[in-house]
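Check out a protein:
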Amino acid sequence: ISMASQQYTTFRVGKYLFGLNILLIREINRNTELAKVDLTDDFILGLMNLRGEIITILDLGERIGTTTEEYNESSRCIILKTGKEFAPISELLNNMPYKCDDLVGLMVNEIGDIISIDDNDITNPPANFTIDLKYLSGVYQSDSQLLLLLNPNSVLND
Protein backbone atom coordinates (compact mmCIF):
# COMPACT_ATOMS: atom_id res chain seq x y z
CA ILE A 1 0.00 0.00 0.00
CA SER A 2 1.44 3.33 -0.97
CA MET A 3 1.00 6.27 1.37
CA ALA A 4 -1.43 7.76 -1.12
CA SER A 5 -3.84 4.86 -0.69
CA GLN A 6 -5.63 3.66 2.46
CA GLN A 7 -7.86 0.69 3.18
CA TYR A 8 -11.33 1.21 4.60
CA THR A 9 -13.87 -1.19 6.02
CA THR A 10 -17.31 -0.30 4.73
CA PHE A 11 -20.49 -0.66 6.75
CA ARG A 12 -24.12 0.37 6.65
CA VAL A 13 -25.99 2.49 9.16
CA GLY A 14 -29.58 2.91 8.03
CA LYS A 15 -29.53 4.01 4.39
CA TYR A 16 -25.93 5.31 4.46
CA LEU A 17 -22.71 3.55 3.55
CA PHE A 18 -19.77 4.52 5.75
CA GLY A 19 -16.08 3.77 5.69
CA LEU A 20 -13.56 3.63 8.51
CA ASN A 21 -9.83 3.25 8.07
CA ILE A 22 -8.92 -0.33 8.96
CA LEU A 23 -5.94 0.87 10.99
CA LEU A 24 -8.40 2.21 13.60
CA ILE A 25 -10.25 -1.09 13.98
CA ARG A 26 -9.28 -3.62 16.61
CA GLU A 27 -11.87 -6.21 15.56
CA ILE A 28 -15.37 -6.71 14.22
CA ASN A 29 -17.59 -8.72 16.50
CA ARG A 30 -20.97 -10.33 15.98
CA ASN A 31 -21.77 -10.46 19.70
CA THR A 32 -24.65 -8.07 20.29
CA GLU A 33 -25.42 -9.13 23.88
CA LEU A 34 -25.13 -5.94 25.86
CA ALA A 35 -25.69 -4.99 29.47
CA LYS A 36 -27.90 -1.92 29.53
CA VAL A 37 -26.69 1.06 31.53
CA ASP A 38 -29.21 3.42 33.12
CA LEU A 39 -28.90 7.21 33.05
CA THR A 40 -26.58 7.43 30.04
CA ASP A 41 -26.85 9.25 26.75
CA ASP A 42 -29.38 7.86 24.26
CA PHE A 43 -26.60 6.82 21.90
CA ILE A 44 -25.00 4.44 24.42
CA LEU A 45 -26.50 1.02 23.79
CA GLY A 46 -24.75 -0.67 26.70
CA LEU A 47 -21.63 -2.52 27.77
CA MET A 48 -20.15 -5.63 26.21
CA ASN A 49 -17.88 -8.06 28.00
CA LEU A 50 -15.35 -9.18 25.41
CA ARG A 51 -12.91 -11.74 26.79
CA GLY A 52 -12.89 -9.98 30.15
CA GLU A 53 -12.62 -6.44 28.77
CA ILE A 54 -15.58 -4.09 29.21
CA ILE A 55 -16.40 -2.16 26.05
CA THR A 56 -18.87 0.73 25.75
CA ILE A 57 -21.06 0.20 22.69
CA LEU A 58 -22.46 3.22 20.86
CA ASP A 59 -25.43 3.29 18.51
CA LEU A 60 -23.61 4.98 15.65
CA GLY A 61 -26.77 6.14 13.87
CA GLU A 62 -28.17 7.69 17.04
CA ARG A 63 -24.79 9.27 17.80
CA ILE A 64 -24.45 11.05 14.47
CA GLY A 65 -28.12 11.92 14.15
CA THR A 66 -29.33 9.64 11.41
CA THR A 67 -31.88 6.85 11.52
CA THR A 68 -30.83 3.26 11.96
CA GLU A 69 -32.64 0.11 11.11
CA GLU A 70 -33.40 -2.47 13.77
CA TYR A 71 -30.31 -4.41 14.78
CA ASN A 72 -30.52 -8.03 13.73
CA GLU A 73 -28.33 -11.02 12.83
CA SER A 74 -26.44 -8.97 10.22
CA SER A 75 -25.58 -6.26 12.77
CA ARG A 76 -22.01 -6.07 13.95
CA CYS A 77 -19.95 -4.23 16.53
CA ILE A 78 -16.83 -2.49 15.23
CA ILE A 79 -14.42 -2.44 18.17
CA LEU A 80 -12.03 0.50 17.85
CA LYS A 81 -8.43 0.56 18.97
CA THR A 82 -7.60 2.74 21.94
CA GLY A 83 -5.43 5.79 21.39
CA LYS A 84 -2.57 3.90 23.05
CA GLU A 85 -2.96 0.97 20.61
CA PHE A 86 -3.13 3.36 17.67
CA ALA A 87 -0.19 5.61 18.63
CA PRO A 88 2.60 3.35 17.27
CA ILE A 89 1.02 3.31 13.80
CA SER A 90 -0.29 6.89 13.67
CA GLU A 91 2.36 7.88 11.12
CA LEU A 92 0.66 5.50 8.67
CA LEU A 93 -2.33 7.86 8.77
CA ASN A 94 -0.26 11.03 8.43
CA ASN A 95 -0.17 11.32 12.23
CA MET A 96 -3.92 11.75 12.35
CA PRO A 97 -4.86 12.86 15.86
CA TYR A 98 -6.83 10.04 17.45
CA LYS A 99 -7.66 10.07 21.11
CA CYS A 100 -9.77 7.48 22.82
CA ASP A 101 -8.70 6.23 26.22
CA ASP A 102 -11.49 3.68 26.62
CA LEU A 103 -12.48 0.65 24.62
CA VAL A 104 -15.43 1.65 22.44
CA GLY A 105 -17.49 -0.21 19.88
CA LEU A 106 -19.80 1.10 17.20
CA MET A 107 -22.98 -0.87 16.49
CA VAL A 108 -23.71 -0.91 12.76
CA ASN A 109 -26.44 -2.54 10.69
CA GLU A 110 -24.16 -4.47 8.36
CA ILE A 111 -20.50 -4.85 7.43
CA GLY A 112 -19.53 -4.48 3.77
CA ASP A 113 -16.18 -4.87 2.03
CA ILE A 114 -12.67 -3.64 2.54
CA ILE A 115 -11.77 -1.19 -0.20
CA SER A 116 -8.65 0.77 -1.07
CA ILE A 117 -9.13 4.47 -1.67
CA ASP A 118 -6.57 6.81 -3.12
CA ASP A 119 -6.24 9.89 -0.91
CA ASN A 120 -6.70 12.11 -3.99
CA ASP A 121 -10.16 10.60 -4.58
CA ILE A 122 -11.48 11.76 -1.21
CA THR A 123 -13.44 15.00 -1.33
CA ASN A 124 -15.25 17.20 1.15
CA PRO A 125 -18.85 16.25 1.91
CA PRO A 126 -21.56 18.31 0.21
CA ALA A 127 -22.50 21.34 2.34
CA ASN A 128 -26.21 20.49 2.30
CA PHE A 129 -25.67 17.02 3.67
CA THR A 130 -28.15 15.54 6.15
CA ILE A 131 -25.46 14.28 8.56
CA ASP A 132 -23.52 16.81 10.63
CA LEU A 133 -20.26 17.27 8.70
CA LYS A 134 -18.12 17.21 11.84
CA TYR A 135 -18.67 13.43 11.95
CA LEU A 136 -17.17 12.97 8.48
CA SER A 137 -13.55 13.23 7.40
CA GLY A 138 -14.55 13.17 3.73
CA VAL A 139 -16.52 11.33 1.08
CA TYR A 140 -15.57 8.96 -1.71
CA GLN A 141 -17.71 8.53 -4.81
CA SER A 142 -17.48 4.93 -6.00
CA ASP A 143 -19.00 3.72 -9.24
CA SER A 144 -22.27 2.94 -7.51
CA GLN A 145 -22.63 5.14 -4.44
CA LEU A 146 -21.28 7.70 -2.02
CA LEU A 147 -19.08 6.36 0.78
CA LEU A 148 -19.05 8.56 3.89
CA LEU A 149 -15.70 8.44 5.68
CA LEU A 150 -16.22 8.52 9.42
CA ASN A 151 -14.21 10.87 11.63
CA PRO A 152 -13.82 8.77 14.78
CA ASN A 153 -12.51 11.67 16.88
CA SER A 154 -15.70 13.69 16.65
CA VAL A 155 -17.86 10.58 17.12
CA LEU A 156 -16.03 9.63 20.30
CA ASN A 157 -14.97 12.96 21.78
CA ASP A 158 -17.68 15.44 20.87
